[in-house]
Specification:
The structure is a homodimer of 239-residue chains. Chain A is mostly helical and 239 residues long. Chain A has helices at residues 29-52, 59-65, 70-76, 80-85, 90-100, 107-121, 136-145, 147-172, 181-202, 209-221, 228-238. Chain A has two domains: 22-83, Arc Repressor Mutant, subunit A (Orthogonal Bundle), CATH 1.10.10.60; 90-238, Tetracycline Repressor, domain 2, CATH 1.10.357. The first copy, chain A, contains eleven helices and no strands. At the A-B interface, helix 8, helix 9, helix 10 and helix 11 of A face helix 8, helix 9, helix 10 and helix 11 of B. Chain A binds a DNA duplex (30 and 30 nucleotides) through residues 2-3, 8, 28-30, 33-34, 37, 58-60, 68-72, 74-75, 78-80.
DNA sequence: GGTCATGTTGCAGCCACTATAACGTTGCAG
DNA sequence: CTGCAACGTTATAGTGGCTGCAACATGACC
């Protein structure tokens, strides 16, 4: 956050799907290696954290498991947390998508839609391999199981809050300094997403993540009046 | 968070109000010194952070300013953040007060009431000296002004979320594992409190903190439907 | 005044993270 | 295919947050 942020690759490309010789299509050898290293690091991080707990894994361990030097780890991730919680490349998309929603939608609707569809896309099912070899589900399991990471996730999502708040303000022409609504909506929405995702992970992925999140937004839009506001929606969806 | 948490004193006692010879009433000399040290550390931390920014203040600086050894700093606070964000002793009160609200109140009402009255109590006015010589307002100013602290505050409040969620679950007899409502309510409430307090600090304390928070809860209970849901309430309150 | 409990300190050490400067690879142009 | 330039990797050394431990000092109580 302080530095120059010249962190190199991004997960968001190169499926490396089942086809083994999709190796050469418009990515150079360098890019492929970078991506491989990044994935190895992420994967090692998740494995180690899952088995030992976040506090008992050092950056050195992760680097070793991915067979790179500890210093190299920091060329890919700005912090140990980032390797586990990841997803930073998604911030830009989020902004663009909120701004891109039809203008007759209320900010609430726009945010709900964007958040839900993002989560739907990256959560398919606990064992699908879509584009991120290290998946949302594993991350959320790790977070759910580790007290330190539960706190870290909240902090991590502060970045999302800010982006969402700015995008909402831009949509409505509000001034962030004088109008607390964008920040309020963003924070509440991220709280919903976080609680819902952890609930989803806790339940082993039984209900689709998207449905849990949508139920959370529904409860939110009903003013959180009633403890049944969410469970009912979920039960209805499960039928 | 990992250790034994045998951190010693607590702010929540000994007004040391204007009377200078309230020095001996049922506090021992030791207790008074501890409290003084704690306050000196907190105060030094806030001063230094306000003038230089969080990242450019070391624990050594704070300890030096309070005239204790760096090691002693960690006898009082588990981390540098804690010295600035503080207020941990408040967690127990929060739980008790939520459980103590009349049982005909909905969880939402109970949480709203407790949060609002807490904030009302500790925010009186930017220059009052009530019981905490280092005040909520200064803290929120520091947080508002420093990007790192904005994130840290979110993480810090995760502890509150948990306590509130547990208390709500206990009130309603819900099972935290199967019912996401308590966590959802707690997270949303803390989001409201946080956004409102930062807004309050940004505005220089013009509107009473309590009113801003209450407006936030009102917007939340209206489902965040509309960007005017909060500003209108605020305007009405200001009249 | 003696003694026990409690708070303070220095020291040694772990780990996250950074700056810098070699060093090895890759890509590319001739 | 050769050599150069861009780029990624690594070792080294250092800063700072934080902890455990073992003296040491100070206040409490008899």
């Amino acid at each position: 956050m302080t530095g120059l942020s010249e962190h190199l690759p991004s997960d968001a490309a190169a499926p490396t799907t089942s086809g083994q010789d999709a190796t050469q299509h418009d990515t150079t050898r360098r890019d492929r290696k970078k991506l491989a290293t990044r994935q190895a690091l992420r994967c090692a991080a998740l494995d180690l954290v899952a088995s030992r707990g976040y506090a008992h894994v050092t950056v050195e361990d992760i680097a070793e498991a991915a067979d790179v030097s500890p210093r190299t780890f920091f060329n890919y991730f700005p912090s140990k947390e980032a390797a586990v919680l990841g997803d930073d490349e998604l911030l830009g998309e989020l902004r663009a998508e909120i701004l891109g929603r039809p203008s007759q939608e209320t900010p609430f609707q726009a945010v709900e839609h964007v958040v839900c569809s993002h989560i739907a896309a990256r959560s398919r099912h606990p064992d699908s391999t879509w584009r991120d070899p290290v998946e949302l589900y594993r991350r959320m399991r790790a977070v759910q199981d580790d007290p330190y990471l539960r706190v870290a996730l909240v902090a991590h999502m502060a970045a999302f809050e800010r982006v969402v708040a700015d995008a909402v303000a831009e949509r409505t022409g509000a001034d962030t300094a004088s109008d607390p609504y964008p920040a309020l909506l963003a924070s509440a929405a991220m709280a919903v997403a976080r609680v819902a995702l952890l609930y989803w992970a806790r339940g082993g992925g039984a209900t689709a993540a998207e449905d849990v999140v949508r139920a959370g937004f529904h409860a939110l839009s009903s003013g959180l009046a009633d403890s049944s506001s969410m469970t009912e929606t979920l039960a209805k969806g499960a039928r």
